[in-house]
Amino acid sequence: MSRRARREALEGYLSILPWVIGFLVFTFGPIVASIYFGFTEWSITRPPRWIGLDNYVRMFTRDPLFWTSLKVTSSYVVMALPLQLVGGLALSLLLNIKVRGMNVYRTIFYIPAVISGVAVALMWMWLMQPDYGVINSLLALVGIQGPKWFWDPKWALPSVAIMSVWKVGGGAVIYLAGLQNIPPHLYEAAEIDGAGRWPRFWHITVPLLTPTIFFQLIVGLIEAFKVFTEAFVITKGGPLNATYFYMLYLYEEAFQNFNMGYASALAWVLTLIILTSTIILHVTSSRWVYYEAEERGA
Amino acid sequence: MTQKASVGTIRPRGVIRSPLLSRQTRRWLGAGITYLGMTTLAFFFMIPLLWMLSTALKARWEVFAWPPQWIPQEPHWENFREALTRYPFGRFTMNTALLVVANTIGELLSVPLVAYAFARLRFPGRRSLFMLVIATMMIPLQAKIIPLYALFHRLGMIDTYWPLILPSFAGDPFFIFLMVQYMRTIPFDLDDAARIDGAGTWGILYRVILPLCRPPLTIVVVYTFLWTWNEFLKPLIYLNDFHSFTIQLGLAMFRGRYSVEWNLFMAATLISVLPVLVVYFFVQKQLIGGIASVGLKG
Q1: Which phi and psi (to 5°) does residue B150 adopt?
Q2: ipTM of the complex
Q3: Which chain A residues are closer than 8 Å to B172 by Cβ?
Q4: What is the pTM assigned to this prediction?
């Protein structure tokens, strides 16, 4: 290495130092520690005590709440993720129409994506009040007796999924960027060949959007596993544990009951689930995600 | 989707054209239908916020009217004052603003520096380290939250703002990624020219590169604001003292501790959302463009 190259390398390492330290202290360290804590009994005030696989055995064999929360979270993924993927795509198709002033609509539909947290949860709680909520009053206008939403064990989880659809504008903007990257000459060629609107959508738009759909699928999955605020603020996990999300269980075990060891094991199982599903998606993605570069033989 | 086709596309076959309408008229009609459809949809998307505003301005007795009244008989502006004074929301807002400022400083000190090294300096291991940055974007918070809590507990930082501030000085991986992507598009000739003029590595960063990085810097600042403002789980875990609460914690406590006075409640919620909306309206263009570009290049 020349003197200049060595100097540049040194400067490079110095520049990334904040990230390196942050990675070691706030990410890598905690992850390693979390594996260790998963094998201990530990209540933060006293030092952790090694108990081997006990936490995991307990979780899988005698902890109904673990299974409940896992079921709630995966049901939520199954309900919310398709809604978000299809809803986002549909909205982006609308926002891609070329008329003047479309930017105004894009701005409006993106608003729900920037406000979040407790405020949104409270707002939806109020909207979905069974007896004096505005949603049930709108449904009554068309003759439908609205459900009790968050207050009905059958409807509570779908309610959380429905409120998540309000935020599809966030996904739609990403789809929109994908849509605008599709070369127009493909549509022109298809049109000359006499392909109608639906064939063009299925054979051009969808295949060329698969990288974006894939990205949204992974991000959506990780987000769904993190759902916490809605359950904590609106339902407290109820009614009848219908919205007892995994993250809520984790929080209660760790920071209310201070079963830090057991909670670490819970965190690890969740991380493994997320990792495994991401890897499975990645592996299968080569079958359905279309990358232009590969097609060209690049 | 019917709207899409009606905007100036020609269908080659199977279409019975009305002889009464000229192409011009049909195009005009199509645009009209598009605007009508989009406006209706946009209205439905805004219902939650409009309903929040409506409730915030109502008298107590009006809140539970059935069917719900959209326009309050007279606006009760004093609800806002009452929401702010009955519960220390002014205090909570100041606390949150302080965290926003601290986190912004942290990200602005670290992100450009780290990104500059990854984007424009050569050093062994650069590629794999950058892959690591991208990989850490995928690691869910729950995998590290318990050891992080333990770490800050050990350091005696529970009930201080340090756990909520320090990580930002390491640079958020998402921001680093975004910044690297942007910095790579700046011509390298600029660096060489500056070097010939006698500028050092960091001189180039601060005098040549950074002034060209307004768009990604805006995104860093705005997202730091949004995330810090909306963050719930972390403050919930690290802060116990009522006086140090953030606005999200304040809202959640408001829900938990008192019987719900929905008009005051919605006034408080609106106050918490307002700064976000104001900032959003000033930067929506960069924000939508910035988030859209992320899904593609990864």
Answers
A1: -60, -40
A2: 0.89
A3: none
A4: 0.88
